[in-house]
Amino acid sequence: MSALLNSVVIVGGGTAGWLTACIIAAEHGPSVSVSLVESPDIPTIGVGEGTWPSMRSTLQKIGIQEVDFLAACDASFKQGTEFRNWVYSDRSHCYHHPFSLPAEYASLNLAEHWLLSEVDSDFCRSVTPQGDAILADRAPKSVGVPDYAFQLNYGYHFDAGKFAALLMRHATERLGVKHILANLTAVHLDEEGAIASVDLDRAESMTGQLFVDCTGQKGLLIGDALGVPLDSLAHVLPNDRAVVTQVPYSISDNEIASATRSTAQSAGWIWDIGLQSRRGVGYVHSSAFISEDEAIDTLRDYVRASQPQLSEQDFKVRTVPFTPGKRRVFWQKNCVAIGLSAGFIEPLEASAIALIEQAATKVSEALPLDQQSMGLEAAQFNQRMHEQWDQISEFLQLHYALSQRSDSEYWRQVRSEQALLPSLKDKLARWSRHSIWHADAPRFDELFPAASYQYVFYGMQGRVSQPSPHRRSFQTTIGRADAAMHDVKERKRSLVASLPSNRELLSHLCRTSSPNNQRVSP
Questions:
Q1: Does the reported pTM lie above 0.90?
Q2: I want to staple 125 with a disulfide (CB 3.0 to 4.6 A). Which of 46, 131, 274, 332 is the partner?
Protein backbone atom coordinates (compact mmCIF):
# COMPACT_ATOMS: atom_id res chain seq x y z
CA MET A 1 0.00 0.00 0.00
CA SER A 2 1.37 3.43 -0.91
CA ALA A 3 2.09 6.05 1.75
CA LEU A 4 -0.72 8.31 2.87
CA LEU A 5 -0.79 11.84 1.52
CA ASN A 6 -1.39 14.01 4.56
CA SER A 7 0.26 17.33 3.67
CA VAL A 8 -2.01 20.06 2.27
CA VAL A 9 -0.74 23.39 0.94
CA ILE A 10 -3.39 26.05 0.30
CA VAL A 11 -2.28 28.92 -1.93
CA GLY A 12 -4.42 32.01 -1.40
CA GLY A 13 -6.35 33.36 1.57
CA GLY A 14 -9.68 35.17 1.66
CA THR A 15 -12.90 33.36 2.44
CA ALA A 16 -12.07 30.41 0.15
CA GLY A 17 -8.57 29.78 1.51
CA TRP A 18 -9.25 30.23 5.20
CA LEU A 19 -12.59 28.43 5.19
CA THR A 20 -10.94 25.47 3.44
CA ALA A 21 -8.08 25.50 5.95
CA CYS A 22 -10.47 25.55 8.91
CA ILE A 23 -12.68 22.75 7.55
CA ILE A 24 -9.73 20.42 6.90
CA ALA A 25 -7.83 21.25 10.11
CA ALA A 26 -10.89 20.99 12.35
CA GLU A 27 -11.74 17.56 10.96
CA HIS A 28 -8.27 15.99 10.93
CA GLY A 29 -6.31 17.78 13.62
CA PRO A 30 -2.55 17.13 13.62
CA SER A 31 -2.90 13.98 11.47
CA VAL A 32 -3.04 16.24 8.38
CA SER A 33 -0.58 19.12 8.04
CA VAL A 34 -2.26 22.26 6.65
CA SER A 35 -0.26 25.28 5.46
CA LEU A 36 -1.68 28.40 3.85
CA VAL A 37 0.38 30.74 1.67
CA GLU A 38 -1.14 34.21 1.38
CA SER A 39 0.11 37.26 -0.48
CA PRO A 40 0.59 40.31 1.76
CA ASP A 41 0.07 42.53 -1.30
CA ILE A 42 -3.30 41.32 -2.67
CA PRO A 43 -6.42 42.38 -0.75
CA THR A 44 -9.53 40.21 -0.67
CA ILE A 45 -12.43 41.29 -2.90
CA GLY A 46 -14.49 41.71 0.27
CA VAL A 47 -17.63 43.36 -1.13
CA GLY A 48 -19.89 41.84 1.53
CA GLU A 49 -21.24 38.34 1.38
CA GLY A 50 -24.38 36.31 1.85
CA THR A 51 -24.47 32.69 2.94
CA TRP A 52 -26.90 29.83 3.00
CA PRO A 53 -28.06 28.10 6.22
CA SER A 54 -25.25 25.56 5.67
CA MET A 55 -22.85 28.12 7.14
CA ARG A 56 -24.34 27.52 10.60
CA SER A 57 -23.23 23.87 10.46
CA THR A 58 -19.84 24.86 9.08
CA LEU A 59 -19.17 27.35 11.87
CA GLN A 60 -20.22 24.78 14.46
CA LYS A 61 -17.94 22.11 12.98
CA ILE A 62 -14.88 24.35 12.93
CA GLY A 63 -15.54 25.52 16.50
CA ILE A 64 -16.59 29.18 16.27
CA GLN A 65 -19.33 30.41 18.59
CA GLU A 66 -22.16 32.19 16.82
CA VAL A 67 -22.14 35.25 19.05
CA ASP A 68 -18.41 35.70 18.48
CA PHE A 69 -18.85 35.41 14.72
CA LEU A 70 -21.68 37.96 14.73
CA ALA A 71 -19.69 40.48 16.78
CA ALA A 72 -16.41 40.05 14.89
CA CYS A 73 -17.80 40.16 11.35
CA ASP A 74 -20.43 42.94 11.52
CA ALA A 75 -22.79 40.10 10.65
CA SER A 76 -26.58 39.94 10.47
CA PHE A 77 -29.21 37.26 9.91
CA LYS A 78 -30.32 36.39 6.38
CA GLN A 79 -33.61 34.55 5.89
CA GLY A 80 -33.64 34.46 2.09
CA THR A 81 -33.85 36.85 -0.85
CA GLU A 82 -36.45 39.47 -1.69
CA PHE A 83 -36.84 40.09 -5.43
CA ARG A 84 -38.18 43.43 -6.59
CA ASN A 85 -39.25 44.39 -10.11
CA TRP A 86 -37.94 41.21 -11.69
CA VAL A 87 -41.25 40.50 -13.41
CA TYR A 88 -42.26 43.95 -14.72
CA SER A 89 -40.44 47.18 -15.49
CA ASP A 90 -43.52 49.42 -15.44
CA ARG A 91 -45.14 48.38 -12.15
CA SER A 92 -44.04 47.21 -8.73
CA HIS A 93 -43.77 43.51 -7.98
CA CYS A 94 -42.11 41.66 -5.11
CA TYR A 95 -41.67 38.01 -4.17
CA HIS A 96 -39.48 36.02 -1.78
CA HIS A 97 -37.23 32.98 -1.92
CA PRO A 98 -37.01 32.12 1.81
CA PHE A 99 -34.80 29.55 3.51
CA SER A 100 -37.68 27.78 5.26
CA LEU A 101 -39.36 24.96 3.37
CA PRO A 102 -43.12 24.97 2.78
CA ALA A 103 -45.17 23.43 5.59
CA GLU A 104 -45.40 19.60 5.49
CA TYR A 105 -42.88 19.68 2.65
CA ALA A 106 -41.52 16.15 3.09
CA SER A 107 -44.79 14.43 2.24
CA LEU A 108 -47.30 17.05 1.07
CA ASN A 109 -47.08 19.23 -2.04
CA LEU A 110 -48.81 22.43 -0.96
CA ALA A 111 -48.07 23.96 -4.36
CA GLU A 112 -50.76 21.96 -6.16
CA HIS A 113 -53.31 22.84 -3.48
CA TRP A 114 -52.32 26.51 -3.58
CA LEU A 115 -52.70 26.52 -7.38
CA LEU A 116 -56.34 25.48 -7.03
CA SER A 117 -57.16 27.54 -3.96
CA GLU A 118 -58.46 31.07 -3.44
CA VAL A 119 -56.08 31.88 -0.60
CA ASP A 120 -53.33 34.53 -0.73
CA SER A 121 -52.04 35.04 -4.28
CA ASP A 122 -48.50 35.14 -2.85
CA PHE A 123 -47.22 31.55 -2.83
CA CYS A 124 -44.48 32.12 -0.23
CA ARG A 125 -46.81 33.80 2.25
CA SER A 126 -49.32 30.96 1.86
CA VAL A 127 -46.93 28.11 2.68
CA THR A 128 -44.44 29.54 5.23
CA PRO A 129 -44.47 32.35 7.81
CA GLN A 130 -40.99 33.45 6.75
CA GLY A 131 -42.12 35.84 4.02
CA ASP A 132 -44.04 37.91 6.56
CA ALA A 133 -41.08 37.84 8.95
CA ILE A 134 -38.85 39.19 6.16
CA LEU A 135 -41.30 41.97 5.34
CA ALA A 136 -41.37 42.97 9.03
CA ASP A 137 -37.53 42.85 9.41
CA ARG A 138 -37.93 40.20 12.10
CA ALA A 139 -35.09 38.05 13.42
CA PRO A 140 -35.21 34.29 12.81
CA LYS A 141 -35.36 33.46 16.54
CA SER A 142 -36.13 34.88 19.95
CA VAL A 143 -33.75 36.03 22.66
CA GLY A 144 -32.58 32.98 24.59
CA VAL A 145 -32.65 30.53 21.68
CA PRO A 146 -29.19 28.85 21.65
CA ASP A 147 -26.42 29.45 19.13
CA TYR A 148 -27.32 28.15 15.67
CA ALA A 149 -30.83 27.03 16.70
CA PHE A 150 -33.82 28.78 15.12
CA GLN A 151 -37.53 29.28 14.77
CA LEU A 152 -37.12 30.27 11.11
CA ASN A 153 -34.25 28.88 9.04
CA TYR A 154 -31.43 31.36 8.35
CA GLY A 155 -27.97 32.09 7.04
CA TYR A 156 -25.91 35.27 7.36
CA HIS A 157 -24.76 38.50 5.81
CA PHE A 158 -21.25 39.57 6.85
CA ASP A 159 -18.23 41.69 6.02
CA ALA A 160 -16.07 39.36 3.90
CA GLY A 161 -12.76 40.97 4.94
CA LYS A 162 -13.59 40.65 8.64
CA PHE A 163 -14.76 37.08 8.14
CA ALA A 164 -11.47 36.07 6.48
CA ALA A 165 -9.56 37.73 9.36
CA LEU A 166 -11.60 35.85 11.96
CA LEU A 167 -11.05 32.54 10.16
CA MET A 168 -7.31 33.25 9.90
CA ARG A 169 -6.97 33.83 13.63
CA HIS A 170 -9.08 30.78 14.46
CA ALA A 171 -7.12 28.57 12.05
CA THR A 172 -3.68 29.63 13.23
CA GLU A 173 -4.34 30.03 16.97
CA ARG A 174 -6.68 27.10 17.58
CA LEU A 175 -6.47 24.64 14.70
CA GLY A 176 -2.72 24.52 14.06
CA VAL A 177 -2.70 25.87 10.49
CA LYS A 178 0.67 27.25 9.41
CA HIS A 179 0.40 30.73 7.85
CA ILE A 180 3.03 31.97 5.38
CA LEU A 181 2.89 35.55 4.11
CA ALA A 182 4.57 35.52 0.70
CA ASN A 183 3.95 35.94 -3.00
CA LEU A 184 4.01 32.98 -5.36
CA THR A 185 6.84 33.34 -7.89
CA ALA A 186 7.02 29.93 -9.59
CA VAL A 187 5.33 26.53 -9.70
CA HIS A 188 7.38 23.38 -10.34
CA LEU A 189 5.85 20.21 -11.79
CA ASP A 190 7.15 16.67 -11.45
CA GLU A 191 7.69 14.23 -14.30
CA GLU A 192 4.00 13.23 -14.25
CA GLY A 193 2.75 16.81 -14.48
CA ALA A 194 1.67 17.16 -10.85
CA ILE A 195 2.76 20.06 -8.64
CA ALA A 196 5.98 19.23 -6.80
CA SER A 197 6.70 22.59 -5.14
CA VAL A 198 6.08 26.32 -5.24
CA ASP A 199 8.63 29.12 -4.97
CA LEU A 200 7.90 32.11 -2.74
CA ASP A 201 9.46 35.56 -2.60
CA ARG A 202 9.54 35.99 1.19
CA ALA A 203 9.92 32.41 2.36
CA GLU A 204 11.50 29.12 1.41
CA SER A 205 10.07 27.02 -1.39
CA MET A 206 7.27 24.73 -0.25
CA THR A 207 6.63 21.14 -1.15
CA GLY A 208 3.29 19.46 -0.66
CA GLN A 209 1.29 16.39 -1.50
CA LEU A 210 -2.05 18.08 -2.20
CA PHE A 211 -2.28 21.71 -3.33
CA VAL A 212 -5.47 23.77 -3.07
CA ASP A 213 -5.75 26.72 -5.45
CA CYS A 214 -7.55 29.63 -3.77
CA THR A 215 -5.82 32.33 -5.83
CA GLY A 216 -9.09 33.77 -7.15
CA GLN A 217 -9.90 34.39 -10.78
CA LYS A 218 -6.22 34.23 -11.72
CA GLY A 219 -6.10 30.49 -11.01
CA LEU A 220 -2.33 30.52 -10.63
CA LEU A 221 -2.08 26.78 -9.97
CA ILE A 222 -5.05 25.17 -11.75
CA GLY A 223 -4.91 27.52 -14.74
CA ASP A 224 -1.44 28.97 -15.21
CA ALA A 225 0.59 25.98 -13.97
CA LEU A 226 -1.60 23.01 -14.91
CA GLY A 227 -3.29 24.54 -17.95
CA VAL A 228 -6.89 23.73 -17.08
CA PRO A 229 -9.01 26.16 -19.14
CA LEU A 230 -11.94 28.24 -17.91
CA ASP A 231 -15.01 27.35 -19.93
CA SER A 232 -17.26 30.35 -20.52
CA LEU A 233 -20.75 30.56 -19.03
CA ALA A 234 -21.59 33.79 -20.85
CA HIS A 235 -24.12 31.84 -22.93
CA VAL A 236 -26.04 31.18 -19.70
CA LEU A 237 -25.91 34.72 -18.31
CA PRO A 238 -23.99 37.70 -19.73
CA ASN A 239 -23.26 39.66 -16.52
CA ASP A 240 -19.53 40.28 -16.16
CA ARG A 241 -19.01 43.03 -13.58
CA ALA A 242 -20.39 44.87 -10.58
CA VAL A 243 -20.02 48.41 -9.30
CA VAL A 244 -20.17 48.36 -5.51
CA THR A 245 -20.41 50.77 -2.60
CA GLN A 246 -20.86 50.81 1.16
CA VAL A 247 -23.67 52.90 2.58
CA PRO A 248 -23.74 54.03 6.24
CA TYR A 249 -27.12 53.96 7.95
CA SER A 250 -28.80 57.34 8.28
CA ILE A 251 -29.26 56.64 12.02
CA SER A 252 -27.35 54.13 14.12
CA ASP A 253 -30.41 52.06 15.05
CA ASN A 254 -31.86 51.72 11.54
CA GLU A 255 -33.71 48.46 11.02
CA ILE A 256 -31.63 45.72 9.37
CA ALA A 257 -33.22 43.90 6.46
CA SER A 258 -33.79 40.18 7.08
CA ALA A 259 -33.10 39.21 3.46
CA THR A 260 -30.87 40.16 0.57
CA ARG A 261 -32.82 42.66 -1.52
CA SER A 262 -32.38 42.16 -5.24
CA THR A 263 -33.88 44.87 -7.46
CA ALA A 264 -33.89 44.42 -11.24
CA GLN A 265 -32.49 47.22 -13.42
CA SER A 266 -32.28 47.84 -17.16
CA ALA A 267 -29.01 45.90 -17.58
CA GLY A 268 -28.87 43.66 -14.52
CA TRP A 269 -29.83 43.92 -10.85
CA ILE A 270 -28.78 45.63 -7.62
CA TRP A 271 -28.08 43.75 -4.41
CA ASP A 272 -28.72 45.45 -1.07
CA ILE A 273 -27.31 43.70 2.01
CA GLY A 274 -27.84 44.99 5.53
CA LEU A 275 -25.02 44.53 8.05
CA GLN A 276 -24.98 45.86 11.60
CA SER A 277 -23.12 49.08 10.81
CA ARG A 278 -23.86 49.66 7.11
CA ARG A 279 -25.38 48.39 3.89
CA GLY A 280 -23.42 46.81 1.09
CA VAL A 281 -24.92 47.70 -2.30
CA GLY A 282 -23.80 46.65 -5.78
CA TYR A 283 -25.06 46.74 -9.35
CA VAL A 284 -24.38 43.45 -11.18
CA HIS A 285 -24.56 44.07 -14.92
CA SER A 286 -23.30 43.25 -18.36
CA SER A 287 -20.72 45.63 -19.83
CA ALA A 288 -22.09 44.80 -23.29
CA PHE A 289 -25.32 46.65 -22.49
CA ILE A 290 -24.32 49.52 -20.19
CA SER A 291 -21.22 51.63 -19.65
CA GLU A 292 -19.46 51.81 -16.30
CA ASP A 293 -20.45 55.47 -15.87
CA GLU A 294 -24.10 54.64 -16.56
CA ALA A 295 -23.96 51.76 -14.09
CA ILE A 296 -22.50 54.04 -11.42
CA ASP A 297 -25.23 56.62 -12.07
CA THR A 298 -27.88 53.90 -11.68
CA LEU A 299 -26.32 52.76 -8.41
CA ARG A 300 -26.16 56.35 -7.13
CA ASP A 301 -29.84 56.92 -7.95
CA TYR A 302 -30.78 53.70 -6.15
CA VAL A 303 -28.86 54.63 -3.00
CA ARG A 304 -30.13 58.21 -2.90
CA ALA A 305 -33.74 57.03 -3.20
CA SER A 306 -33.41 55.64 0.33
CA GLN A 307 -30.80 58.07 1.66
CA PRO A 308 -31.13 61.41 -0.17
CA GLN A 309 -28.82 63.13 2.31
CA LEU A 310 -25.84 60.97 1.30
CA SER A 311 -23.04 63.23 0.08
CA GLU A 312 -20.95 62.62 -3.01
CA GLN A 313 -17.92 62.26 -0.74
CA ASP A 314 -19.57 59.36 1.08
CA PHE A 315 -20.55 57.67 -2.17
CA LYS A 316 -17.37 55.76 -2.98
CA VAL A 317 -17.61 53.19 -5.76
CA ARG A 318 -15.29 50.53 -7.07
CA THR A 319 -15.66 48.17 -9.99
CA VAL A 320 -15.33 44.40 -9.63
CA PRO A 321 -14.98 42.69 -13.03
CA PHE A 322 -15.47 38.95 -13.34
CA THR A 323 -15.46 36.36 -16.10
CA PRO A 324 -18.52 34.09 -16.03
CA GLY A 325 -17.10 30.59 -16.35
CA LYS A 326 -16.03 27.36 -14.65
CA ARG A 327 -12.94 25.17 -14.89
CA ARG A 328 -13.11 22.26 -17.28
CA VAL A 329 -12.04 20.13 -14.31
CA PHE A 330 -11.74 21.27 -10.71
CA TRP A 331 -9.31 18.61 -9.44
CA GLN A 332 -6.35 18.03 -11.76
CA LYS A 333 -3.47 15.76 -10.68
CA ASN A 334 -2.73 16.84 -7.08
CA CYS A 335 -4.37 20.28 -7.33
CA VAL A 336 -7.93 21.23 -6.36
CA ALA A 337 -9.45 24.60 -7.27
CA ILE A 338 -11.82 26.06 -4.66
CA GLY A 339 -13.55 29.44 -4.75
CA LEU A 340 -13.10 31.90 -7.61
CA SER A 341 -10.22 29.85 -9.03
CA ALA A 342 -12.80 27.12 -9.75
CA GLY A 343 -15.13 29.59 -11.45
CA PHE A 344 -17.84 32.17 -10.98
CA ILE A 345 -21.09 33.01 -12.70
CA GLU A 346 -22.74 35.83 -10.72
CA PRO A 347 -23.78 36.48 -7.10
CA LEU A 348 -27.53 36.01 -7.58
CA GLU A 349 -28.73 33.53 -4.88
CA ALA A 350 -25.31 33.70 -3.13
CA SER A 351 -24.06 30.28 -4.24
CA ALA A 352 -20.32 31.12 -4.18
CA ILE A 353 -19.66 30.47 -0.48
CA ALA A 354 -21.93 27.42 -0.47
CA LEU A 355 -19.74 25.96 -3.24
CA ILE A 356 -16.64 26.66 -1.14
CA GLU A 357 -18.21 24.82 1.81
CA GLN A 358 -19.18 21.88 -0.40
CA ALA A 359 -15.82 21.62 -2.15
CA ALA A 360 -13.73 21.98 1.01
CA THR A 361 -15.86 19.39 2.82
CA LYS A 362 -15.49 16.89 -0.02
CA VAL A 363 -11.71 17.35 -0.03
CA SER A 364 -11.64 16.92 3.75
CA GLU A 365 -13.71 13.72 3.48
CA ALA A 366 -11.22 12.32 0.94
CA LEU A 367 -8.24 12.80 3.28
CA PRO A 368 -5.89 11.25 4.07
CA LEU A 369 -5.27 10.06 0.52
CA ASP A 370 -2.83 7.62 -1.00
CA GLN A 371 -1.42 8.00 -4.48
CA GLN A 372 -3.49 5.15 -5.90
CA SER A 373 -6.82 6.64 -4.78
CA MET A 374 -6.04 10.21 -5.88
CA GLY A 375 -7.41 9.72 -9.39
CA LEU A 376 -10.62 8.09 -8.17
CA GLU A 377 -11.28 10.87 -5.68
CA ALA A 378 -10.55 13.51 -8.33
CA ALA A 379 -12.97 11.92 -10.81
CA GLN A 380 -15.76 11.70 -8.25
CA PHE A 381 -15.11 15.27 -7.08
CA ASN A 382 -15.17 16.61 -10.64
CA GLN A 383 -18.38 14.81 -11.48
CA ARG A 384 -20.22 16.12 -8.43
CA MET A 385 -18.95 19.68 -8.79
CA HIS A 386 -19.98 19.77 -12.46
CA GLU A 387 -23.45 18.59 -11.44
CA GLN A 388 -23.65 21.41 -8.91
CA TRP A 389 -22.46 24.02 -11.41
CA ASP A 390 -25.04 22.80 -13.92
CA GLN A 391 -27.82 23.18 -11.37
CA ILE A 392 -26.65 26.63 -10.31
CA SER A 393 -26.55 27.75 -13.95
CA GLU A 394 -30.05 26.44 -14.55
CA PHE A 395 -31.51 27.89 -11.35
CA LEU A 396 -30.02 31.34 -11.88
CA GLN A 397 -31.20 31.44 -15.49
CA LEU A 398 -34.72 30.59 -14.26
CA HIS A 399 -35.02 34.06 -12.68
CA TYR A 400 -34.34 35.75 -15.99
CA ALA A 401 -36.38 33.37 -18.14
CA LEU A 402 -39.55 34.03 -16.12
CA SER A 403 -39.29 37.81 -16.34
CA GLN A 404 -41.76 39.70 -18.51
CA ARG A 405 -39.48 42.73 -18.79
CA SER A 406 -38.82 43.97 -22.32
CA ASP A 407 -37.65 47.49 -21.49
CA SER A 408 -34.11 46.98 -22.81
CA GLU A 409 -32.11 44.87 -25.20
CA TYR A 410 -30.49 43.25 -22.17
CA TRP A 411 -33.79 41.79 -20.95
CA ARG A 412 -34.89 40.80 -24.42
CA GLN A 413 -31.69 38.81 -24.82
CA VAL A 414 -31.57 37.09 -21.43
CA ARG A 415 -35.25 36.12 -21.77
CA SER A 416 -34.98 34.76 -25.31
CA GLU A 417 -35.94 31.14 -25.79
CA GLN A 418 -32.79 30.55 -27.83
CA ALA A 419 -30.67 31.40 -24.77
CA LEU A 420 -32.39 28.88 -22.49
CA LEU A 421 -30.52 25.82 -21.29
CA PRO A 422 -32.20 22.66 -22.65
CA SER A 423 -32.80 21.30 -19.14
CA LEU A 424 -34.58 24.50 -18.11
CA LYS A 425 -36.64 24.62 -21.29
CA ASP A 426 -37.89 21.08 -20.55
CA LYS A 427 -38.78 21.98 -16.97
CA LEU A 428 -40.70 25.09 -17.97
CA ALA A 429 -42.72 23.07 -20.46
CA ARG A 430 -43.56 20.53 -17.79
CA TRP A 431 -44.45 23.12 -15.17
CA SER A 432 -47.01 24.70 -17.46
CA ARG A 433 -49.03 21.49 -16.94
CA HIS A 434 -47.88 20.04 -13.61
CA SER A 435 -47.03 21.46 -10.21
CA ILE A 436 -43.36 21.42 -9.18
CA TRP A 437 -42.47 18.63 -6.76
CA HIS A 438 -39.65 16.37 -5.51
CA ALA A 439 -39.17 14.62 -8.86
CA ASP A 440 -37.98 17.93 -10.32
CA ALA A 441 -34.94 17.95 -7.98
CA PRO A 442 -34.64 14.30 -6.91
CA ARG A 443 -31.23 14.21 -5.17
CA PHE A 444 -31.27 14.59 -1.41
CA ASP A 445 -28.14 16.76 -1.56
CA GLU A 446 -29.31 19.16 -4.28
CA LEU A 447 -28.14 22.74 -3.82
CA PHE A 448 -31.63 23.92 -4.76
CA PRO A 449 -34.46 21.57 -3.76
CA ALA A 450 -37.81 21.55 -5.54
CA ALA A 451 -39.05 24.09 -2.96
CA SER A 452 -36.58 26.67 -4.30
CA TYR A 453 -37.95 26.21 -7.80
CA GLN A 454 -41.48 26.56 -6.38
CA TYR A 455 -40.70 29.86 -4.65
CA VAL A 456 -39.18 31.41 -7.76
CA PHE A 457 -41.55 29.97 -10.36
CA TYR A 458 -44.79 30.70 -8.51
CA GLY A 459 -43.40 33.94 -7.08
CA MET A 460 -42.87 35.24 -10.59
CA GLN A 461 -45.59 33.46 -12.54
CA GLY A 462 -48.43 33.13 -10.03
CA ARG A 463 -51.09 30.50 -10.68
CA VAL A 464 -50.08 29.55 -14.21
CA SER A 465 -50.93 25.85 -14.18
CA GLN A 466 -54.01 23.98 -13.04
CA PRO A 467 -53.28 20.45 -11.81
CA SER A 468 -56.15 18.00 -11.92
CA PRO A 469 -58.28 18.16 -8.74
CA HIS A 470 -59.75 14.73 -9.48
CA ARG A 471 -56.66 12.65 -8.76
CA ARG A 472 -57.09 10.39 -5.74
CA SER A 473 -53.82 11.57 -4.18
CA PHE A 474 -55.03 15.17 -4.38
CA GLN A 475 -58.47 14.46 -2.95
CA THR A 476 -57.08 12.54 0.02
CA THR A 477 -54.73 15.39 1.01
CA ILE A 478 -57.15 18.32 0.79
CA GLY A 479 -57.81 18.29 4.54
CA ARG A 480 -54.10 18.18 5.39
CA ALA A 481 -53.34 21.00 2.96
CA ASP A 482 -56.12 23.23 4.30
CA ALA A 483 -54.94 22.62 7.87
CA ALA A 484 -51.30 23.29 6.94
CA MET A 485 -52.06 26.62 5.24
CA HIS A 486 -54.32 27.64 8.12
CA ASP A 487 -51.48 26.83 10.54
CA VAL A 488 -49.11 28.98 8.44
CA LYS A 489 -51.53 31.90 8.73
CA GLU A 490 -51.66 31.55 12.52
CA ARG A 491 -47.90 31.06 12.90
CA LYS A 492 -47.00 34.13 10.89
CA ARG A 493 -49.26 36.30 13.03
CA SER A 494 -47.71 34.88 16.19
CA LEU A 495 -44.10 35.08 15.00
CA VAL A 496 -44.33 38.60 13.60
CA ALA A 497 -45.84 39.72 16.90
CA SER A 498 -43.36 37.89 19.16
CA LEU A 499 -40.00 37.82 17.36
CA PRO A 500 -37.58 40.69 17.99
CA SER A 501 -36.34 42.73 15.06
CA ASN A 502 -33.03 41.82 13.46
CA ARG A 503 -31.48 44.91 15.06
CA GLU A 504 -32.81 44.09 18.53
CA LEU A 505 -31.56 40.50 18.57
CA LEU A 506 -28.15 41.36 17.09
CA SER A 507 -27.63 44.16 19.61
CA HIS A 508 -28.50 41.80 22.47
CA LEU A 509 -26.23 39.00 21.24
CA CYS A 510 -23.25 41.25 20.54
CA ARG A 511 -23.54 42.75 24.04
CA THR A 512 -23.42 39.27 25.53
CA SER A 513 -20.70 37.77 23.31
CA SER A 514 -17.96 35.90 25.17
CA PRO A 515 -14.96 37.79 26.56
CA ASN A 516 -12.80 35.65 24.27
CA ASN A 517 -14.29 37.53 21.35
CA GLN A 518 -12.26 40.56 22.42
CA ARG A 519 -9.16 38.62 21.44
CA VAL A 520 -10.32 37.65 17.97
CA SER A 521 -12.43 40.60 16.88
CA PRO A 522 -10.89 43.04 14.37
A1: yes
A2: 131
